Amino acid sequence: MPTPTPTRAAGLDALEDFVPRAGAAYARDRNHDDGPSRSNVSGLSPYLRHRLVTEQEVVEAVLAHTGLGAAEKFVQEVFWRTYWKGWLEQNPEVWRRYRHDVAQLTAGDLPPGHHDAVEGRSGIDAMDAWVRELVDTGYLHNHTRMWFASIWVFTLGLPWQLGADFFHRHLLDGDAASNTLSWRWVAGLQTRGKTYLATASNISRFTDGRFSPAGLATTARALDEEALPARTPVDPADVVGRVGDRVGLLLHEEDLEAGSLLAERPDLVHTLLATAVSADAGARSPSGVSPVVAAFTAGAVADAAARTPDASGRPARVLTDAAPATVLSWARAEGLDTVVVPFAPVGPVAERLEALRPVLDAEGIALVTVRRRWDGTAWPHAARGFFPFRERIPALVRQL
Ligand SMILES: Cc1cc2nc3c(=O)[nH]c(=O)nc-3n(C[C@H](O)[C@H](O)[C@H](O)COP(=O)(O)OP(=O)(O)OC[C@H]3O[C@@H](n4cnc5c(N)ncnc54)[C@H](O)[C@@H]3O)c2cc1C
């Protein structure tokens, strides 16, 4: 798999290249991790994660070529992303606790074995190779992520939150929902009591014999946690806030594709007086992100800025940082009364927008969030497990 270039054009090329492989071949071969050159999966996740390319575009391209029958498995995988986001949206306490736990765990002495594990010196050859691959490339195959998380929790006995944090800091596609909830799933917290146990024979089979680690845990007792509060239903409104006359658009790293977002809302924004992009990849973790992730995010932001001119044709301004004061000074300088932003699902960007809102409010500037129809339509169905959600995918595909 080539190192992804952080532009929408490169993402669309990667999509075009993958589309002929999204049918039966994907369903048959996708679980194999035969090394970094893999062609059995799409490698689209860094693009989807920042919405340089959208879920809708990916599903439409695959369906136009292959149809839902043969591409069902691939389409379901794309909807896993949507499902996790919808589930976390309705259970934000899970993110709050995760943030709290990571802050506490990284503030004190780290548990024995942690340092060796993240330095690729655990002594388990497969883990050590995967650490190097993750750190160097920002990517791991899905099956490998499952084995890694399982060995981290059940063989090395390390806190799942620190493993999730390590992934979040290093994955180009690092995502609050997919990452946190997948780690919880492996640990037996997400589907309560059901864990994922990595075995040497499974690893050997699906790495085509590259690895067959000895000494792995043979049992996986589910972790436990305090019961979660009742679910918060998804807000039915796709647009929250009142749009004034002097409107600016502020993109962020959760959604860098203004064209299709605003095309869904032609009623909302007639004239964009100013456009800007801000990002803070480092907010994913108290320990910041890897240079590979920082560079990909910065590249994606620069690409979005060039693609998002305002009404007079000026490219979007890349804000020096994502602090509320920086956004406020841009909005003031442009004389805005409204800052429109793509809706940010539960995660670091949503936290940032929560801090920004009162700062803009105090200056009489409204912060208006616009959620894509894709999210607004699918998320309410992510209230329970994935299987009831999966039943709805054909109907969702028709609707969307
Ligand atoms: C412990 C663990 C942590 C993970 N952390 C992340 C993360 O931070 N960000 C992330 O995007 N995915 C995460 N995943 C899910 C999955 O591993 C990746 O989305 C996938 O490997 C990306 O590679 P791809 O684009 O080649 O996938 P493909 O197999 O080509 O799938 C196409 C797209 O579908 C979505 N997708 C596929 N599988 C999953 C899945 N299981 N869950 C959610 N979405 C999926 C992705 O957007 C992906 O790009 C994690 C999985 C595990 C087990």
General description of the model:
This protein is mainly α and 400 residues long. It folds into 3 domains: 8-89 and 380-399, Serine Threonine Protein Phosphatase 5, Tetratricopeptide repeat, CATH 1.25.40.80; 103-206, Orthogonal Bundle (DNA Cyclobutane Dipyrimidine Photolyase, subunit A, domain 3), CATH 1.10.579; 239-371, Rossmann fold. It is 50% helix and 6% strand. The protein has 18 helices and 6 strands. The protein has helices at 8-18, 24-29, 45-49, 55-90, 92-107, 114-118, 125-137, 142-155, 160-170, 176-187, 200-206, 258-263, 291-307, 324-333, 348-361, 373-378, 386-391, 393-399; strands at 239-240, 247-251, 274-277, 317-318, 338-342, 366-370. A 6-stranded mixed beta sheet has the order 1-6-5-2-3-4. Strand 3, helix 13 and strand 4 form a beta-alpha-beta unit. Helix 8 (142-155) packs across helix 10 (176-187), helix 9 packs antiparallel against helix 10 and helix 14 crosses helix 15 (348-361). The chain starts with 7 loop residues before the first helix and ends with a helix. The mean pLDDT is 97. Residues 30, 41-45, 48-49, 77-78, 80-81, 84, 141-142, 145-146, 149, 167, 171, 173-175, 178-179, 182-183, 186 line the site of flavin-adenine dinucleotide.
